[in-house]
Amino acid sequence: MFDLIIRNGNLPDGRKGFDIGVSGGKITAVEKTIAAEAGEEVDATGRLVSPPFCDPHFHMDATLSLGIPRMNVSGTLLEGIALWGELRPLLTREALVERALRYCDLAVTQGLLYIRSHVDTSDPRLVTAEALLEVREKVAPYIDLQLVAFPQDGYFRAPEGAASLERALDMGIDIVGGIPHFERTMDEGRRSVEALCRIAADRGLPVDMHCDETDDPLSRHIETLAAETIRFGLQGRVAGSHLTSMHSMDNYYVSKLIPLMAEAEINVIPNPLINIMLQGRHDTYPKRRGMTRVRELMAAGLNVSFGQDCMMDPWYSMGSADMLEVGHMAIHLAQMGGIEDKRKIFDALTVNSAKTMGLTGYGLDVGCKADLIVLQAEDILEALRLKPNRLFVLKGGEIVARTAPRIGELFVKDRPSSIDSGRDFVPRY
Questions:
Q1: How far apart are CA 150 and CA 154, in angstroms?
Q2: Record's PANTHER family (predicted)?
Q3: How would CATH label the architecture of 2-51+363-419?
């Protein structure tokens, strides 16, 4: 007797028509046919069943603040940072919590159950930290929320940046962040990387650093981050987010840099939606795409995962909490349209991100947590193409969200009466 069985699901690795049995909040059977009863059954009807999506890079303290106190007219990263500086004094704990919880509601319906959010620690009031710590506790039954102490205005550049970051960590924020390219000088950026890695080593914490989010090919703080990771023995516990300057670096330098990153076991987090929106702003034509060298980094064996970064905030007026939208953009930006390419992109939204976030019990193997989604698509290739509805979302074996299939009604003579884009247009690869 199982608590729940998902019947007739297709798995991300290509296996079709499998049942998944759940007991005590964990996966206890994955078989072609489970000859048993369950308290509840979900018929996947030949749809894709996947572990939930993970977002390893987001800014939940800024989400849904679009237009407060004004819009980003230039659309640039620097105006976004300036605008956030105008908004920050207006922030209240209550408003921050309300916006974050609204975002989490949407995330659950999108099958996004694991999120790592950066928390701006530049304001000594630390109202952002207080609010997001409250949100982390409130959403714990249905979303695993990790928090990064992020000195948005610079660890050295902000008047109380260093002290505020330490206080945020003392409050319970559990990851060390940084933004070396926003310090006053290249040398201060280098020193901030060293100081922050030392803090992480002393406290036994991971590192997730905004690194080289610029078009400047001479912004090379990822080199320092990799070296300090090795120096402090932090291999596998450090993430470099964005790394957009690598798009503009010369190939010889990158041929030295990538092996150093691999030696340091750096987790790489590009943010395709934001990278394409904010980078190349000073270019005329040809105009740079901005996203880091995803294909080359993957080929070198680095763990690459994709983040959403923003939704309806000073930097990005778009967004829908849909990680498939992120993967869809990554396919275009990285020009990874092949079948195996797309499999790697899907991994970057799921298993790779789970590795970046240090998750345990994640996946579809027996013994894993029964955190699962059923999508209105037959396989991962179609999921990335269609960005389909999440028919069922399960957390610990309990259904926490459900969305009806998207079916179009057609009123055309001698043609079908309905269209299911997730089933009627499946190519045979």
A1: 9
A2: CYTOSINE DEAMINASE
A3: Roll (2.30)
Cα–Cα distance measured from residue 169 to residue 190, given in angstroms and rounded to the nearest whole number: 21
CA 289: distance to chain centroid?
Answer: 20
- The residue ranges of every structural domain in the chain are 2-51+363-419, 53-356
Measure the CA–CA gap between 239 and 205, rounded to whole angstroms: 12
* Cα gap 209→305, rounded to integer Å: 14
Question: pLDDT value at position 429?
Answer: 66
Tell me the two tokens of residue 400.
């926490």
Describe the strand order of the beta sheet including 238-242 as a list of residue ranges: 53-58, 112-120, 144-150, 175-178, 207-211, 238-242, 267-269, 303-304
Q: What angle do CA 171, 206, 230 make, to 5 degrees?
A: 140
Which residues of the chain are modeled with pLDDT < 50?
A: none
Residue range 53-356, CATH number = 3.20.20.140
Clarify whether 325 is annotated catalytic.
no
What's residue 232's pLDDT?
98
CA angle 343, 345, 351 (to 5 degrees): 85
Which entry of 183, 213, 223, 382 is annotated as an active-site residue?
A: 213
pTM across the whole model = 0.97
Whether the CB-CB separation of 14 and 379 falls below 8 Å is answered with: yes
Query: 206: cis peptide before it, omega within 30°?
Result: no
End-to-end CA distance of the chain, in Å? Answer: 38
| pLDDT value of residue 387 | 97
In the prediction, which pLDDT does 421 show?
A: 87
